[in-house]
Design goal:
Layout: E1 2-9, H1 22-28, E2 29-31, H2 45-51, E3 59-67, H3 76-93, E4 98-102, H4 115-126, E5 131-136, H5 144-149, E6 152-155, H6 164-179, E7 185-191, H7 205-215, E8 221-227, E9 241-247, H8 250-265, E10 275-276, H9 278-287, E11 293-297, H10 312-318, E12 325-331, H11 333-342, E13 347-352, E14 364-374, E15 378-381, E16 384-387, E17 391-396, E18 399-404, H12 414-417, E19 428-431, H13 438-441, E20 447-451, E21 485-486
Parallel strand pairs: 1-3, 1-4, 4-5, 5-6, 10-20, 11-19, 11-20, 12-18, 12-19
Antiparallel strand pairs: 2-3, 7-9, 7-21, 8-9, 13-14, 14-17, 15-16, 17-18
The structure holds zinc ion (ZN).
């Protein structure tokens, strides 16, 4: 068989003031055909997973794979040029039996609210007979255009996203089996009419996800994905949906999708993850036996498209000089440059962070000591390696701050340890991450607390003005029970 793979992905926060141009892709991760490394970069996992098919005698043709750190709206020219680059590669690869795309599912470009639906529809027009598959992040806006254009869509199941390669392998296996005529995926989508989500690192999400995994491959269910949606985007399709593929049987798939959706809808508010205000979170951490206690600055997570330079939690830590702490990685390329110029061991008056948005707090002015500098701070995230760019660690009393010149989530303790910080000596370690940090930090943490610093990511959808979002939807409207249900998808004969 001939299999084409490519990847085009970012997560667009339509409220973020950080434009995404082509350079943002080229600087984060841009791999022309055949140059993708052995390890996947989150959404490019299908490219890596497809390579294994070569060992089974299949021909795998790689297109471009690219990913931009989440930020604001993607420029029309940037999206158009990258999309057409990949579609031209698909055209040149014809005939293909299978086309596999590593996407995110919530990429929004100027003029394109549903980039993935647009890309997959165009791919379908180019390769009408091919089996088309796509992997999505679970923070996707699942659209009818995506489901209609693709034969199989598989989303990550885990939040934190520890399973991007495992789900890519599911996608490859299902698409090849479909092309071989061994299975016939028929989709069902249940629209929960809810803005929400859950973590799989805690209950009830953990055991629910274990049962979801156990469901697949039995009783005619080929694949089951829960799409959480991404509330920092004003698009029609945002919200929670369940996508199930039955083997030749959409009715059974629909019943399973509905049952899964109703289970999630039955969870009560007290089962949601508690969030603490910064000062209260530090007090709570101090009261916990053992150290370090990890505080997640959830709403200043660069992976959510914001800057990662909010000083709200940093200032709360500065107010507690009695608490040995570290915070990172905070985005400030100018401060990194100044600290590097001063050099390790130097003391200087530095203004840093709090510059990107009014919701990022005020910049901090302090006499700091440069503890260490790095030309390129690399940290692992599951099977991938992430660059924080040039970095500096500065100290103010017993508080260490890791400053980075490239926006990326604080996925792992190496963001601190590679800058010379011994986390065992810290009572509090604050990370700029939503939950992706969890798997790597949990083994060394006495506890993990989630902090609500108020922004700049919009934490409360009730306080966001959505103009394009399909209504009614909870919690913006009274429980839209009558609007919930299965989408009617057109049958596509194969
Ligand atoms: Zn995500």
């Amino acid at each position: 068989m001939r299999i084409f793979t490519a990847s085009l992905a970012t997560e667009t926060n339509t409220f973020a003031p950080l434009p995404t141009d082509r350079l943002a892709f080229e600087e984060t991760a841009y791999f022309p055909p055949g140059t993708h490394p052995e390890t996947p970069t989150l959404c490019s996992a299908p490219v890596v997973a497809a390579r294994r098919l070569r060992r089974q005698g299949h021909t795998v043709i790689e297109g471009t794979a690219t990913w931009a750190e989440p930020a604001g709206l993607v420029g029309r020219a940037a999206y158009g040029s990258l999309r057409d680059e990949i579609l031209n590669q698909l055209r040149a690869a014809l005939p293909v039996d299978v086309a596999l795309f590593g996407l995110h599912g919530c990429m929004v470009a100027d003029g394109y609210d549903d980039c993935e639906g647009d890309l997959l529809s165009r791919a379908r027009a180019i390769a009408p007979e091919a089996v088309i598959g796509a992997e999505l992040d679970l923070h996707a806006h699942l659209s009818e255009a995506m489901v209609n254009a693709a034969d199989v869509v598989v989303a990550f199941k885990e939040f934190p996203h520890t399973d991007f390669l495992a789900r890519a392998e599911d996608l490859v296996r299902l698409c090849v089996a479909t092309a071989e005529g061994k299975v016939r995926p028929v989709p069902a989508v249940y629209d929960m009419r809810r803005i929400g989500g859950y973590m799989t690192s805690r209950e009830p999400g953990r055991s629910f996800t274990d049962r979801l995994l156990a469901l697949e491959g039995h009783g005619g269910i080929l694949s089951a994905s829960i799409v959480h949606g991404y509330q920092a985007a004003d698009v029609y399709d945002m919200g929670m949906k369940v996508l199930v593929y039955g083997d030749g049987d959409g009715v059974h798939a629909g019943a399973v999708a509905q049952a899964l959706a109703h289970e999630i809808l039955s969870w009560t508010p007290d089962q949601e993850t508690p969030h603490h205000k910064p000062a209260a979170a530090i007090d709570k951490a101090v009261a916990i036996r053992g150290q370090p206690v990890v505080l997640a600055d959830r709403w200043d997570n660069p992976g959510g498209g914001v800057a990662g330079d909010s000083t709200v939690l940093l200032r709360a830590l500065l107010d507690r000089p009695d608490v040995p702490a570290a915070i990172g990685a905070m985005w400030d390329p100018i401060a990194v440059k100044l600290a590097a110029a001063a050099g390790a061991g130097a003391r200087l008056h530095l203004r840093f962070c709090g510059k990107a948005t009014p919701q990022s707090g005020e910049p901090v002015d302090a006499l700091v000591q440069v503890r260490s500098v790095s030309d390129n701070l690399l940290i692992p995230f599951e099977q991938s390696v992430v660059s924080l760019g040039a970095a500096a660690c500065i100290s103010i009393g017993s508080l260490d701050v890791v400053l980075a010149s490239t926006r990326a989530q604080t996925f792992s303790p190496e963001a601190f340890t590679r800058m010379g910080i011994d986390l065992r000596q810290k009572k509090v370690v604050a990370v700029k991450s939503s939950n992706h940090f969890y798997a790597a930090f949990a083994p060394l943490a006495a506890d993990v607390l989630y902090v609500d610093s108020g922004g700049p990511y919009p934490p409360d959808p009730r306080r966001v003005t959505y103009n394009k979002l399909r209504r009614p939807i909870a919690p913006l409207d009274p429980e839209p029970i009558a609007a919930r249900g299965l989408l009617s998808l057109p049958a596509r004969p194969r």
